[in-house]
Amino acid sequence: MSAIGSPNGSAVRSQFAAGRDDQSRDWELVLRESHHRMKNTLTMLGASVRRDFTRAATRDVSLAVDRFERRIVAFGRLYQLLSDNDDPSPVSVAPFFENLCGALFEAVLEPAGIRCEAAIEDDTLPSSQCHRLALMLTELVTNAAKHAFPNKNGGLIRIDVARRDGAWVCTVADNGIGAVGPLRGTGSRILEGLAHSIHARLHGEAGQGGTRVSIVMPAAA
């Protein structure tokens, strides 16, 4: 056994400190993404509310208020899903991501006139991995909603979560204008940091048929 103060003891303390620093940076990364996502979603929500109330005739104001209330509730559900990761128990993938897709549709996509399709395979994942994948998928969906459909016609975003060849493959694809370099800016840096934290890789493709970004995470990571 290494004595405290010996070279080996110093190495153990250094490793412990490094691990603690890594955990701290990882948690800060998740917090930054949560706050980044909250800010962007609220911006989109505010724009949709202004649009609804600008267009609404007097008799339609109550309908606009009802739509706004539903979006606020959906946003609250979305934020809870993304932030409620204190329970270390394994998460059932299909119910979790189906709920996430429903909240994304109501809070982000429906106000922008964008349709959503989702195919989710069921299994279980550790809570930390599941919530980081959720943060990444939310970032990709919101990014597509903001940038892929300048004409606002016929927009469709498809979300797939499946196990393939010993890995989880989570894909967000749109039929929009086809971004040149689908991963950019602050969101890109946070995505890459989150991917690194769960040993995942990001793959992006863009063309005339739209943009497709996949997260590939080893199932046993």
UniProtKB/TrEMBL annotation:
SUPFAM superfamilies: ATPase domain of HSP90 chaperone/DNA topoisomerase II/histidine kinase. The keyword DNA damage does not apply. Keywords: ATP-binding, Kinase, Nucleotide-binding, Phosphoprotein, Transferase. It comes from the Bacteria. It catalyses: ATP + protein L-histidine = ADP + protein N-phospho-L-histidine. Residues 33-107 form the Signal transduction histidine kinase subgroup 2 dimerisation and phosphoacceptor domain. Gene3D superfamilies: Histidine kinase-like ATPase, C-terminal domain (3.30.565.10). InterPro entries: HATPase_C_sf, HATPase_dom, Sig_transdc_His_kin_sub2_dim/P. GO terms for molecular function: ATP binding; protein histidine kinase activity. Its EC number is 2.7.13.3. Coiled coil: none annotated. Residues 117-186 form the Histidine kinase/HSP90-like ATPase domain. Transmembrane segments: none annotated. It is an enzyme of class 2 (transferase). This is histidine kinase. The lineage of its organism: Bacteria, Pseudomonadati, Pseudomonadota, Alphaproteobacteria, Hyphomicrobiales.
